[in-house]
Amino acid sequence: MLNIRIEPTKQKKQKPEQSKLGFGQYFTDHMFVMNYAEGKGWYDPRIIPYQPVSLDPSAMVFHYAQEMFEGLKAYKAPNGEALLFRPQKNIERMNNTCRRMCIPEIDPDDALQAIKAVVDYDSDWIPDAPGTSLYIRPFIIATDPRLGVHASKTYLFMIILSPVGSYYAEGLNPVKICIEREYVRAVKGGTGAAKVGGNYAASLLGQKKAEDKGYSQVLWLDGVHRRYIDEVGAMNVFFVIDNEIVTPALDEGNILPGVTRASCIELLKSWGYKVSERKIAVEELIEANNSGKLNEAFGTGTAAVISPIGELIDGDNVMELCGGKIGPISQKLYDTLTSIQWGKAEDPFGWSVKVR
Ligand code: COI
Fold first, then answer.
1. Which pLDDT score is estimated for 171?
2. Which residue's alpha carbon is at the smallest distance from atom 8 of ligand 1?
């Protein structure tokens, strides 16, 4: 159990208008910080005013990107309670990422205590307008002031909080996604399944190409065969082909094991749908679309929640899905998942965790 020291801010910030939150633009009054040193372990857990971090310019994170991050949300339930959605899953993934990045793990109970403590301390920042939540960003950076390529011996663990609305400007309206044939995001044996900044840095050029053409995101293909669907970077992806709901399998280790992805699979199976986690070749999607069997596609993610895909673009081939509208399965998943997350519906799987 952590003994968290608290230093309150002297000047509370003005809260942004809930209708203008967007994603990740505003930060709350406080943040959680804890240090690590080899031989000492994690120490000095504290909640302090939100502020810049002072680091040596040679700090390893700047040069070799030894870092990791997570993303989860707190929701304001109708009875005023603050709820987290499956935080243990994020903490488990955080420690998996730490192992991949040679970062010391954090005791899962301590990590949960830290998340709850800082969210509770700034709980007046959890927005309550429809579709809004408090995005929680835990992250760890390597801080040794050394230029040799080695695992750092010192780290900082921080948790910052951001009141958010939709990740995409489109909200729940379908997004246009471009299949990327030139660049890849991850390869087998790489860090695709870990939540590290490097994966996102590697995605930026493809993302920019897509945005320049007016698309929201990139649909990545696997880095070996350049053929199998991987993920959308900020989301995992699902397709409804005929009567089967398919999503890329995690077994190659190049896809992020999303918490929303896992929750959607459980929900869909509980509703009796056939859900397959398997390889999906890009030609299969094109053929399914040509024969009228590609009924629906959507992305899933903590930030994006459920994001229907209205258009898939592969070079000159523009595949319109569901008439560019929200498909029935995307809509049902969104309604069910968000009702559970916001504490408005029964929680048959026991996914919600009270902050207090
Ligand atoms: C999340 O969904 O929480 C993510 O981390 C995706 C992100 C790149 C915004």
1. 77
2. 234
Per-residue confidence (pLDDT) for residue 350, from 0 to 100: 97
Strand partners for 84: 74, 353
Task: Give the whole-angstrom CA distance, residue 37 versus residue 39.
Answer: 6
Q: Per this entry, what is the length of the chain?
A: 356
Q: Measured between alpha carbons, how far is 35 from 43 in angstroms, rounded to an integer?
A: 5
**Could you identify the atom of ligand 1 that is nearest to the CA of residue 233?**
8
Ligand 1 probe mutation, 72, 302, 305, 337, most atoms within 8 A of CB: 302
Q: Which residues contact 252 (CB under 8 A, 6 or more apart)?
A: 188, 222
User: Residue 303 CA: which ligand 1 atom is closest?
Assistant: 2
- Shortest-distance atom of ligand 1 to CA 258: 2
Please tell me the pTM assigned to this model. Answer: 0.96
Distance 290 CA to ligand 1 centre (A): 32
**pLDDT at residue 173 in the model:** 87
Per-run averaged pLDDT (10 residues), the chain, 356 residues: 97 96 97 98 98 98 98 97 98 98 98 98 96 97 97 98 90 90 92 96 93 92 94 93 96 94 98 97 96 96 94 94 92 96 96 98
DSSP 239-270: EEETTEEEEE-STTS-S---HHHHHHHHHHHH
| Distant-in-sequence, close-in-space partners of 66: CB < 8 Å, separation ≥ 6 | 60, 101, 102, 103, 141, 142, 151, 152
